[in-house]
Amino acid sequence: MLWGKPVNNVSRIIIKSSSTSGSFTLTTAADVAQNDKGTGFSYRLPIIGQLFKQYYGVAFNYVDYTIVWACENRENGQ
Fold first, then answer.
1. 3-state secondary structure string, the chain?
2. Which of 27, 56, 26 is nearest to 41 (CA)?
3. How many Å apart are CA 8 and CA 6, to the nearest integer?
4. pLDDT tens digit string along 18-48?
5. 42 by DSSP, 3-state: which?
6. DSSP 3-state assignment of 6?
């Protein structure tokens, strides 16, 4: 993952994932910004388009790790 320095309070991240077979690599980009509810990620996905996810920071070590929590309403009470 590459996490760029913020410009106008928005960081760009680029995530590269390889398939378990190693036959292809997927690259995903997102813009990340702080808001009043935590940290928001706006992903740009090839087929779906723009997708927004809200994350809440639990623990940070800006060099080695970040632990985040996310909740998603699945419309079944879970």
1. CEECCCECCEEEEEEEEECCCCCCEEEEEEEEEEECCEEEEEEEECCCEEEEEEEEEEEEECCCEEEEECCCCCCCCC
2. 56
3. 6
4. 888 878 888 888 898 888 877 888 888 778 8
5. strand
6. coil
